[in-house]
Design a protein that fits this description.
The structure holds two protein chains of two kinds. Chain A is an all-alpha fold. Chain A has one domain. Chain A has a two-stranded antiparallel sheet with strand order 1-2. In chain A, strand 1 and strand 2 form a beta hairpin. In chain B, the strands form two sheets. In chain B, strands 6-7-8-3-9-10 form a six-stranded mixed sheet, sandwiched between helices. Chain B has a four-stranded antiparallel sheet with strand order 2-1-4-5, covered by helices on one side. Chain B is globular, with a radius of gyration of 18 Å. Chain B contains eleven helices and ten strands. Chain B has a single domain, classed as Rossmann fold, CATH 3.40.50.300. The longest helix of chain B has 16 residues. In chain B, helix 3 packs parallel to helix 6. Chain B starts with a strand and ends with a helix. Chain B is α/β, with parallel strands linked by helices. Classes of the chains: A mainly alpha, B alpha/beta. Chains A and B meet through helix 8 and helix 9 of A and helix 2 and helix 3 of B.
Chain lengths: 319, 247
């Protein structure tokens, strides 16, 4: 166990160093921008991975929480003149409250039915964003979200925002790792494998599923907040059904039940469209093809798949 | 210790247990035997709170279990070793065992939990050898031992076992039943549901025979073992053999 902890500490220290090095020495601001988006997507994938990968509860409506985070801060800062730093906890709290209320009935479902339930929820929220135009700006979007500032530090420049986002990612990683390594983490994996068996050893499955759902919603809302203040303009399209599916894809491609899988999945799904511009009209075809190939040859996701390949070559070299 | 009065259990509109009464005395092995679908497992699930839809009375040490959810039942000191073992395959043996102590998480309980863990690993040495392995890589018998060990982690006063012999070689079954006897001698009360009537009755103190949701026979295990009706129905002898024996 101690071994495991020191290894984790080393991993996170290296991770922090990489963030610092990239942040200071990468000249190209375009890449900084792309990396910032990867950070936001990593938070989303991390949120969903806690729910899907560890607790085994699928959600096809998670973009709703992402949207609540984004629209929450947009409405509070623009309409009500809140400071963004006050809007952040408010946006996260509202996502948590919504998750709690929605979670009570939907988390009684399982499998396909839970998928359908969360799908419906996601669509309702998206329609709300689109049609409640007096508050959300409707289909044409919400303009004029302020930039973040903290005293003398302005987060308008790409570099500072990069550090802000990746700082949150690092905190999120460490927090989630701690949860997973605890008794709660064991119980979550137990729910994944068999709810009745988990209940039989005394895990309050209903309560725990609800708690992890609320946590997952909170992280998603944080990602939504960061997204809104990065692009200053949000529209319902960014939080549609497709966005939910993209989150699920990031988790599955990256590797379920793995913190680093969230990073890999988010990176691949953010970078692929950038790389594939060269294919112009065939872009989506190639994109789909790559996802298919990954799933066929690395069915347990990139993290597990790459580890397997590494272990296999190491064994070969030993012989 | 455990007293059940006129218990009726429902799956929707179907009544699976039709008015069963039984009692379990401290430090005894009580067995429920009967064929598939006779309501044995349903009865266990009702006790644990996994099946909330029941009528009648279940009291454990004088406390009614009506309306208790599974975690609350575990806290009362009842632990279930479920049918088909249901260990958590990708999780290591050690973590599976620790999950059994899920309800004891406060700092001051840590030492006690570790002590129990040691005791259980001594009881099942094979689990000690395989402590770091994922539970899914264990053989059926080892998984059953793991499931029993997990059930013991919460310090139960009453251990419910649902067909621990299922799908196991006779030699392993014998080993597991020996362990159950040891546990009983250590003061743990055991309610054992079995289809393997012969083996169960040999270690049990008292037995109940189930048939389509009713208790059709009850008595001291040694008497049931000799009872002709039980022999006919559950010990694999038909009327023909009886008459061959008799005449």
């Amino acid at each position: 166990m101690n071994n495991h902890q020191t290894r984790n500490r080393i991993c996170y220290t290296v991770f922090l160093l990489i963030i610092l090095l990239v942040g200071y020495f990468l000249e190209n601001l375009y890449y900084i921008q792309v990396l910032t988006f990867i950070g936001i997507n990593t938070l989303l994938a991390l949120a969903l991975n806690m729910l899907m990968g560890y607790a085994g509860q699928i959600s096809l409506g998670h973009a709703a929480f992402y949207g609540i985070g984004a629209y929450g801060t947009a409405i509070l800062t623009v309409h009500y003149g809140f400071s963004p730093w006050l809007a952040l906890p408010a946006a996260i709290l509202s996502a948590m409250i919504v998750a709690y209320i929605v979670g009570i009935p939907t988390l009684k479902l399982s499998g396909y039915y839970l998928g359908m339930g969360t799908l419906g929820f996601g669509m309702i929220v998206n329609i709300l964003f689109r049609e409640w135009s007096s508050v959300t700006g409707g289909a044409s979007g919400f303009i004029g979200i302020p930039a973040l500032e903290l005293g003398p530090i302005s987060f308008a420049s790409g570099r500072n925002y990069f550090f802000l986002v990746w700082g949150f990612v690092l905190i999120g990683f460490i927090a989630c790792q701690r949860i997973i390594d605890s008794r709660i983490g064991r119980a979550l994996r137990a729910i994944h494998d068999g709810e009745n068996a988990a209940a039989a050893v005394g895990v309050d499955t209903r309560q725990l599923k609800l708690q992890i759902f609320v946590l997952s919603a909170a992280i998603s809302a944080l990602a939504g907040f960061l997204y809104a203040h990065l692009v200053y303009f949000i529209s319902p399209g960014s939080f549609s059904f497709i966005a939910s599916i993209r989150m699920v894809t990031m988790v599955v491609i990256g590797g379920m039940a793995s913190i680093w899988g969230a990073l890999l999945g988010a990176s691949l799904l953010t970078l692929l469209p950038e790389w594939l511009h060269a294919f112009s009209e065939f872009e989506m075809v190639v994109y789909g093809l790559i996802l298919m190939v990954v799933m066929i040859f690395l069915p347990r996701g990139l993290t597990r798949g790459l580890l397997d390949i590494y272990e296999r070559t190491r064994k070969k070299n030993e012989h | 210790m455990l007293r059940i009065k006129n218990l009726k259990c429902f799956y929707g509109r179907i009544m699976a247990v039709k008015g069963v009464s039984l009692s379990v005395k401290k430090s005894q092995i009580i067995t429920l035997i009967g064929a598939n679908g006779s309501g044995k497992s349903t009865l266990l699930e009702s006790i644990c709170g996994l099946l909330p839809d029941w009528k009648g009375e279940i009291t454990f040490e004088g406390v009614s279990l009506k309306g208790f959810d599974p975690p609350a039942v575990v806290k009362q000191g009842i632990s279930l070793v479920p049918e088909g073992r249901l260990v958590f395959p990708p999780i290591s043996v050690l973590d599976n065992l620790k999950l059994g102590a899920y309800t004891m998480y406060r700092k001051r309980q840590h030492a006690a939990v570790n002590q129990t863990l040691e005791k259980i690993l001594d009881l099942f040495p094979i689990l000690k050898q395989r402590a770091k392995q994922p539970a899914g890589t264990l053989s059926g018998g080892e998984q059953q031992m793991l499931a029993i060990g997990r059930g013991l982690m919460s310090h139960p006063k009453l251990l419910l076992l649902d067909e621990p012999s299922m799908g196991l070689a006779p030699l392993i079954v014998e080993k597991i039943f020996q362990i159950l006897e040891t546990l009983r001698n250590d003061g743990i009360t055991i309610l054992l549901v079995e289809q393997n009537a012969q083996a169960a009755l040999q270690i049990a103190d008292f037995g109940y025979v189930f048939e389509t949701g009713n208790v059709v026979l009850q008595g001291p295990a040694s008497e049931l073992l000799e009872d002709q009706e039980v022999k006919r129905a559950y010990l694999g002898k038909d009327y023909g053999e009886f008459y061959d024996d008799k005449y």
